[in-house]
Write the C-alpha cells for this entry.
Amino acid sequence: MSGDSAGRAGRPESRFGFTLEHWALWQSEAVSSTNAWPSGSVLPANGGLAEVGFLPMLQRRRLSSLARAACAVAWHCRRAAGGDMPAIFHSNHGESQFYLDTLQDMAAGEAVSPSRFSLSVHNAIAGLFSLQSGSFLPYVALAGGTEGIFGAFVEAAGWLQDVRRVMIVCYEQPLPAIYQNYAAACPHIWALAMVLSRPAESGQQLSLFREPLVGQGSCETGQPKLLQAMLNGQQTGCDQLERVRWWWALGHD
Amino acid sequence: MKHIEAELKRLIIDIFELEGIHPEDIISDAPLFGAGLGLDSIDALELGLALKRKYHIKIDAYSSDLIEHFASVRNLAAFIASQQETQIV
C-alpha cells in the first residue's frame, strides 16, 4: 500500500493501493451484472430483501432490511475469502428509521423499545455480524463523513499496516422523509463488501487517488458511482464529494 | 390462567417476529430465555415493556423474584394474574 501524501503546492494528495481479493454487492433493485468486475458476486435482489437463509431464525429476526443487506454481502465475502479477518463497517446514516422511531417515542413521552434502541446504534450491524460469524477479531463501525465510502478505504489502508487482509462493508438506505431535506438522498438500499489486502504482484489491483477540491464542489447524490462502475465493468472513474474527488482504477496482472 | 398463557404465546411470537413458530410450539413450562426458546436479555426488556402496555402491570426491575416470574410462560401468566388481582383489590 502506498499512502504517500504529495502535498504539492500545499494541496495534500493521497494515493492508496490494494489487492482486491473478492467483493459482493447487493441492491434492493434488480440490476444487470453481466459485465461486472471480476472476482465478485452480485447477490440477487430477492424482491428487495437480501437472502440470509444462512442464519438461524433467532438471528434473522433482529435484522432490518439494511442489516440483512450488510450481513449478506459480508457473509459471502468472508466465505469466498475462506476465513475470518478484521472488518470495517461503514455507513453515513445507518439505521435511520430505528433512531427516528426511538426519538419519536421519546418525544411522545412513551417508553422506548429496548431492542429498537439496541439496533439503532451505529455499531449494531457490525456487532450482529460478529456474533453471526463467531468472530473474535477487531471490528469497527465508521460513520461516513466528507470522504463518503472512501473513508472505509483509508481506514483499511491503515489496518493493512498490521494485518494481512481486511474486509470493508459499506451500506446505505433511503432516509426517512423527515430527514430528506437535510442530506443527500439514496434511492434504494445497497450494501458492498470487499476483501482487501496489500498491493501485490498478482491479483486485481485497486488504486485510489484523493484529489482535494478548491472551493466548494457540487456534491453528487445517490449511491457512489463506484458501485455502478463495478456493475458495468467500468475500470476507472471518480466520485465527487463536497470537498474532495476520489478517483479509482482497477488493474489486472 | 390458561387464556393468559395463550395470549402470552401469541404476544411472544408477534413481538419477537418468530418466523415459523406457532403458539402450540411454545411449551408453557419450558425456559423462555437461554436454552428454551433462545431469547436473550434485550428480549426480556422488550417483553417487560409489552406486558406493561398490554396488562398495565407494574414490573419492579429490582425485585429478586423477577427471574422466576420471567422463567416460563406459565410463571409469567401466574405473575400477571396475581398483579391483576392486586389492582382490582
Observations:
- Residues 175 and 250 of chain A are 31 Å apart (CA to CA).
- The helical segments of chain A are 57-60, 65-81, 96-107, 114-120, 124-132, 150-159, 225-232.
- Residues 1-9 of chain A have pLDDT under 50 and may be disordered.
